[in-house]
Amino acid sequence: MNRRHFLSQTAGAAAAFSLFAATPARAFAEVQKADGMNYAPQGKPRPVVKAGEFPFAAAFLDHGHITGMVNGLTEAGATLQWIYEPNPENFSRRDALQQRFPSAKIAKSFEEILDDPAVKMVAAAAVPNLRGPIGCRVMRAGKDYFTDKTPFTELAQLAEAKEIVEQTKRRYFVYFSERLHTESGMYATDLVQNGAIGKVIQVLGLGPHRLNKASRPAWFFERKKYGGILCDIGSHQFEQFLTYAGASDATVAHAAVGNFANPSTPELEDFGEASLVGDNATSNYIRVDWFTPDGLGTWGDGRIVILGTKGYIELRKYLDVAREKSGDHVYLVDEKSERHFNVTGQVGFRFFGEMILDCLNHTEKAMTQAHIFKAAELCLLAQEKAQRLT
Fold first, then answer.
1. Strands 121-124 and 55-59
2. Based on C-alpha coordinates, what's the Rg of the chain?
3. How far is it, in rounded angstroms, from Cα 163 to Cα 44?
4. For residue 252, how far is the Cα from the chain centroid?
């Protein structure tokens, strides 16, 4: 689809696309789509700083999402200066990062990174129950923190992080990749904010994942360490609801979890669902699970449906099942027509550049701290309230 044809299809889409038209991201590397744990989108470099102006460290590489986090930061101009990994089981991931970024130094201790005054941010994908405490150490050292989701596994960790943010004035960012690192997710953000479907009434979020059980580390099956399914992969869904619905708070009306097919790992929750009611009279239903069948060509058929007073949007993020192996499909139905857009290469991943500039300028353009902490709080509350189905 050429740009002129793309822009002519809808005024709402044109308004959203104009934000990116100056530098469309068209060069995308092949990504590993079978395994969500190692899914790491790559986009066209769109630096917001010069080389060396934003040095950062990658540390605690327990989850493969660290690769996507590093991709996003370096494409936005950040410089990977340090890599730290204390667990020998993750040394292959550490070594792969250094091969890609040979100027990055291997830190012998985490303190070596924290004591380096040049480092402005630490990106980490630690075992989930360690992410909050690590973030507090980073902020106390005077640096901003960027963690993989889920950012916390306990409400006490969230409370401590809020306190440290207030004390240090540092930022606690979270890699909510299912919106921030998908072009369809970001495109829908702009469609909604530009009024393409009127006032949003409800957001439905489906987040199925492939289990790939044999390749998962031991902590993945320990409830205390991963936090529960609503806390973990459910965190993506709650962030998307707050964004698309324009809500600043919500209450948990219903939540449930279960282990339906994995008796050998009884602490694993392989299914979860929740319903929220926003403070602006919006509603939300999410379903997350580990039941992606082997026949699907990607790690999960992630979908979002956003209902508004003047239309609706459906996102088919990672493929259009049985039709297209490509992802980033956006379906828009309004009062005039029904339209389909494949936005791959049209939008890019602006969050990372905005996050870097927020750190340097003490602004909140990428995402407010209140929004981040509210999404984290909702997944913790839903997990705490969840009825056990099995």
1. parallel
2. 20
3. 37
4. 21
Averaged confidence pLDDT in the chain: 92
Q: Where in the chain is the domain with CATH 3.40.50.720?
A: 28-175
* In CATH, 179-350+379-388 is 3.40.50.920: no
Residue of 22, 15, 23 lying closest to 45 (CA atoms) = 23
Q: What is the pLDDT of residues 247-300, one digit of tens each?
A: 999 999 999 999 999 999 999 999 999 999 999 999 999 999 999 999 999 999
Q: State whether residue 147 is helix, strand or coil.
A: strand
**Taking phi first (over 0 means left), then psi (-120 to 50 degrees means alpha), and beta for anything else, what does residue 338 get?**
beta
Residue 140 Rama label (left phi>0; alpha psi -120 to 50; beta): alpha
What's the whole-model pTM score?
0.91
Q: Do strands 144-148 and 172-175 pair parallel, antiparallel, or not at all (unpaired)?
A: parallel
CA dist 328 and 312 (Å) reads 16
pLDDT in tens, 10-35: 443 334 333 333 333 333 333 456 66
The tens digit of pLDDT for each residue in 325-383 reads 999 999 999 999 999 999 999 999 999 999 999 999 999 999 999 999 999 999 999 99
Q: Which CATH class is domain 28-175?
A: alpha beta
Q: What are the residue ranges of CATH 3.30.360.10 in the chain?
A: 179-350+379-388
| Residue 101 Cα to chain centre, angstroms | 23
Q: Which two tokens stand for residue 203?
A: 């957001």
What digits encode the pLDDT tens for the residues 33-64? Answer: 666 677 778 888 899 999 999 999 999 999 99
CB atoms within 10 A of CB 50: 9
